[in-house]
Each structure stands twice: as structure tokens, then as C-alpha cells.
Amino acid sequence: MAKDDVPRAAQTPSRAPTEIRKSARRLRIMYDRLVDRFGPQRWWPAKTAFEVVVGAYLTQNTAWKSVERSIANLEARGILSLDGLRAIPEHNFRELIRPSGFMLRKAAALKAFVAFLDAQYGGQMEALRRAALDNPPVVRRQLLALFGVGPETADAILLYALGAPVMMVDEYLRRIVIRHGLAPETAKYSEIQALAEQAFAPNRASGNPEDLARHCNEFHALVVLIGKTHCGRVPRCEGCPLHFDLRKSGFRQPLRIK
Ligand code: SF4
Predict the structure, then answer these.
(1) In 42, 109, 153, 155, which residue has its Cα 20 to 30 A from 61's Cα atom?
(2) Cβ contacts of residue 151 below 8 Å, gap of 6+?
(3) CA 20, CA 45: separation in Å to the nearest integer?
(4) CA-CA distance, 16 to 12, in Å (whole number)?
(5) 4 domain residue, yes or no
(6) How much is the pLDDT for 4?
(7) Could you tell me which residues are beta bridge partners of residue 235?
(8) Statement to judge: residues 61 and 91 lie in one domain
């Protein structure tokens, strides 16, 4: 079996498989509870797949409100499209995305994405989407090789722009799993992603990638919802829909993040 075929949970040796399975079960119960309470989120405010890509880059280290201002600038100039981005000189593009910060880096990174799409996929988002659905790990590696793309941006593009069944990890999910003792504070991105993937292993086994992608999408949306309403820098556990898990697991309060 190639390394990529080994479930990632098994590639992260810091915790025993039984412990990971137990944590994954708890995480799944937490997700089911949130779905019951809040229903489908149908998340990511964008009109096209390419707009999702632009948002995924612009939101790095920036609040979404600032991204909206940059996107409004791009829309007003009629360049929120692949053709628009190909045509605009980089120095002009930088000014339009100034509100979302790091404009030098983000402008260069988005230009690099368009160059990659043109070189590898004939400039077609649809061709990239087909490749991502066919073999998500290969496209993930290609995205990660691009300037300015880390795991969170690559996974946001795969999931929300291309519809691939990929789990996204962000700061909100990291806080929740650490505070609930589901992963150690030292857990890396890949370790938390493996935990989330394990929580949805039955959906993966059912062989319906569209259904799995829907769960990945909803899971991330619900995590963000809890992060914004309760599990921010300072946890507000009272009234939090996930408090039941702390009580059931015998925690009197969330584990502290240093
Ligand atoms: S606010 Fe408290 S109960 Fe809610 S997810 Fe965070 S640690 Fe858990």
C-alpha cells in the first residue's frame, strides 16, 4: 500500500488508534448535535467557483469583513473573473485588494494561481474541478506547491470551490478539539484533519463522495458558527451547544490553551 493510501490517522503516531477512534466518535456526536440544532448551513458566500478561490486567498490572516471590501472593489471594476485577473497589471490589482491586507503577497499568489490554471488545466476551473473530484490528493499537492498556499487555503479551494470531499481545519476547530481534549495542544494541521476525517469514516466508506463533501462543508460551517458565537479566544461555555460533551466526558471546564 502506498503511503498516500494509508489513512492519515494511522500516519500520526502521537496517539493510539483507539484513542483517536474514541475522540472521532465524540466529534461526530458533537457534529450531529449541531446539525439537529441549526440545520443545513449551505455555506460560503460566493457566486462562482473562482470567487471562492479569490476569497480563500484573501481571507488569509484577515477577517471576512475586510475580504468583502476587496471583493466589492474587484466587482466594481469588473475583474472578479479569470479574464479580469489575467488582464489587470499586478500593481493595479494590489490596490484593489488593499483592504484585506498583505496585498503584495496575495496579489502575487492569486496571479500565480491563474498562471497555474492556464498552464495545467487550459485556464478552465471546470477542468480543475474534474481533476479534484477524480483525485483530490494529487490536486491538493499541486495547490500546496503554489506560492502563498498552505493547507487551509488548499483545502478551502478543494472543498468550497471544487466540491471535493476534504476536511478543512481552521483555528476554530483547533480550539474546540483541544479544549475538549480530543487532540493534544501540539497537534498539527494533519493530525486534526485526520481526526475529523475519522469522524466521517462511515460516510467515506459508503462510497458517495458528494454526500461526504456535503458533510465536510456543513461541518466546517458549523464549527465556524460555534467559534464565532462561543469558542473564541475566550471560551463562553455557558449556553454553548457543545457543552454537553464536556459534561459527559467529566471535564468541569474546557482544557486551557496556553
Ligand atoms: S465554548 Fe466551551 S463548550 Fe463550547 S465548544 Fe468551546 S470549549 Fe466547548
Answers:
(1) 42
(2) 144, 169, 189, 190, 193
(3) 33
(4) 9
(5) no
(6) 31
(7) 231
(8) yes
Segments forming the whole domain that contains residue 67: 49-161
Which CATH number is 200's domain given? Answer: 1.10.1670
82 and 126 share a domain? Answer: yes
The predicted-structure confidence for 219-257, as pLDDT tens digits, reads as follows 999 999 999 999 999 999 999 999 999 988 888 788 888
Does 197 lie in the same domain as 99? no
| Atom 6 (ligand 1) nearest CA | 231
Same domain? 120 vs 216: no
Q: Please state the domain count of the chain.
A: 2
Q: Is the pLDDT assigned to residue 8 strictly greater than 50? A: no
Atom number, ligand 1, closest to the C-alpha of residue 179: 7
Predicted confidence (pLDDT) per residue in 56-105, tens digit: 999 999 988 999 999 999 999 999 999 999 999 999 999 999 999 999 99
Residues with a CB atom less than 6 Å from ligand 1: 176, 179-180, 226, 230-231, 235-237, 240, 242-243, 246, 254
What is the C-alpha separation between 198 and 153, in angstroms, rounded?
Answer: 21
